[in-house]
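Service request form, structural biology core

Requester: graduate student, group of Dr. S.
Request type: structure prediction, single chain
Budget code: on file
Notes: please return the result as structure tokens.

Sequence provided:
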Amino acid sequence: LKTEQIWKELEHLDRACRRQKSSSKNRQPKRVLSDETLKVDAIKVSEAHELLPDNLRMIDLEQKDSECFCLNEAPILIDAVDQLQGLELELKSKRTVVGVDSEWSNKAIATLQLSFPDEANARLKSFVIDLLSSAPGFQEMATSFVVWLFGRESPHTVLGFAFRGDMRMLQNYVGPEQTLPSLRCLDLQQVMASEFKERAQLPSLKACAERFSVNKKTFSKAQQCSDWSRRPLSQLQLQYAALDAAILPVLLSEIRETLTQSQSKLD
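Core staff response, request fulfilled:
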């Protein structure tokens, strides 16, 4: 399938999904979030801002012929040891922010998505790691990679969104013998709620992305409930999964730009 066809199909599925959600919307009263819930590590946020390049903007994920945000390039599927080794070597050669997300199936993690800036080419590089791959040696390599990415030796700041569930699934994946610290993780859901005083409820990723959309694009969640255990993964699934991770460095960049402009007005 061509990229345009993929995104048109995603838009069709997303519209159907939104209609279904609106008909069964939860009308429970909103609660006020506590200061503890909104608490973020200011030093960690500052360090992440310093690692960001200056050229990441939400408009780069907005194509004229699509109603939804979409990637400009197809993500790279990682399901063999040599591919994962290459990705690890590339990440070990730099210090940056890495957007991370995961998809689950039957209460187990199925894929891990990564996206980080490629400053040389002024773009984002996106990868979908198939954690259900049966390639020889892949599971051992993938476990080692996850432990390194979240460990003390990794130089990167890991960006997540409502990331507790993902961390729980990743911890289950690597097993009880390994402990995944959250020292390098920055949850952008909390950052958005804290910086923009969202006290009614924690914002969704969809709402955060749409807040910074120049052309009023929406965030398709149509593939969220698809079968992530089935192989091969479809192009629709790969595009959807990768976008969830790719939008995180862009979202952080937009937050930084908004805060910088606000500070300039005060000065």
